[in-house]
Design brief:
single chain; Alpha-Beta Plaits; 2 domains; 4-stranded antiparallel β-sheet; two-stranded antiparallel ribbon; elongated
């Protein structure tokens, strides 16, 4: 069993809104408060970016800006599974911790939103341990109401083993 926790996301400094207002005459926070917002407060920086770019835009629709956020997840699992996951070409940055005496390996995976979307999409086609990792990570994004930005997780009925494993992300 793989366990994942969302441990870091992009944040804005306290000067962002004031500086934007000085430069453009518009405070992105005011625009977002008056308009539409994403389902997740974690995605608010993307709404603020969109408001900075176009104060008249739909600041609730930020899927196209997902690559402008950075996410970090701490994952842990049995050593044999984590070796498969760490060896999988997921394209994320990794930093492993020391293995425990019980054979548990933990690792921090970080990357931009687009990198995570690609990693999750590709994990659905990987071996069983990689599938489990992808689902575990996706559930963390879902827990923080970010699943609408990544797509919906669907079972892959055409998986290599006849459909018992694998998934795909539906946009």
């Amino acid at each position: 069993m793989i366990h994942s926790e969302l441990i870091s996301t992009s944040t804005l400094t306290a000067t962002f809104h004031g500086f934007c207002e000085q430069l453009t005459g518009v405070n992105p926070a005011s625009v977002v408060q008056k308009g539409r917002r994403p389902n997740s407060k974690t995605a608010y920086p993307l709404s603020y970016f969109k408001a900075f770019n176009d104060p008249q835009s739909n600041t609730g629709e930020v899927k196209s800006l997902l690559g402008m956020m950075h996410f970090g997840l701490l994952c842990a699992g049995p050593d044999i599974d984590m070796v498969d996951i760490l060896g999988w070409p997921h394209g994320l940055r990794c930093l492993t911790g020391q293995a425990t005496q019980r054979g548990i390996i933990c690792a921090i995976f970080t990357g931009g939103g687009d990198q995570w979307r690609t990693a999750l999409r590709n994990a659905g086609e990987g071996p069983q341990a990689v599938n489990a990792w992808g689902v575990s990570c996706y559930q963390q994004f879902s827990r923080h109401n970010l699943d609408d930005l990544f797509g919906k997780l669907k079972p892959n009925k055409n998986a290599r083993d006849g459909g018992s494993t694998g998934y795909y992300l539906e946009n």
